[in-house]
Amino acid sequence: MRSGHRRPHVLVLDPSRTLRRICETGLPEQDFRVTSEANLLEALDHIDVLDLDAVVTQMDVDSDTGRELVALIREIFPGVAIIAFSDKGDSELARRAWMKTLEAGADVALPKPFSSDELVRAVRSGMALAASAFLEAARRSA
Q1: Is the residue at 128 inside a domain?
Q2: CATH at 22
Q3: Does some domain include residue 89?
Q4: What's the first-to-final CA gap in the chain, in angstroms?
Q5: What was the pLDDT predicted at 68?
């Protein structure tokens, strides 16, 4: 790490320890800091809300919980990128759930399985989209 260089901070929320470990390995290799927790409540006890750039979280396409979680994350972290992933792939149910999740505020939808490179691209893309949306909202309110 370069002196004075701030590494982007990514929060990974997933009940699967295996998936959290994949993210904990792949993202730091590309100069990201990673905090991972099983759920949002645990994470809120361990992170500085002002020092967060992206949230990577599981989306359950079989219920509204993914959409609700994304909306809650967007409320708590308004300028932070949200990358939602699911293991339901390309089904019609998954496509409808992706649309609901994106409408709720996710920046990127990422189907599982995904590689470390795909995860890094999704996080970078989500961060660029979130920053652009945040700046546009600030311009409109000025």
Answers
A1: yes
A2: 3.40.50.2300
A3: yes
A4: 36
A5: 82
Give the pair of three-digit tokens for residue 35: 């905090």
Contact 108, 84 (CB under 8 A): yes
Q: What is the pTM of this model?
A: 0.85
Beta strand segments in the chain, E: 9-13, 33-37, 54-58, 81-86, 108-111
Buried b or exposed e, range 102-114, using 16+ CB within 10 angstroms: bebbbbbbbeeeb
Our CA dihedral for 59, 53, 126, 22, rounded to 10 degrees, sits at: -60
Count up the domains in the chain and report the number: 1
Q: List, for residues 28-83, the tens digit of each pLDDT value.
A: 999 999 999 988 888 888 777 778 999 999 876 566 677 788 888 888 888 899 99
Measured distance CA(78)–CA(133) in Å, rounded: 10
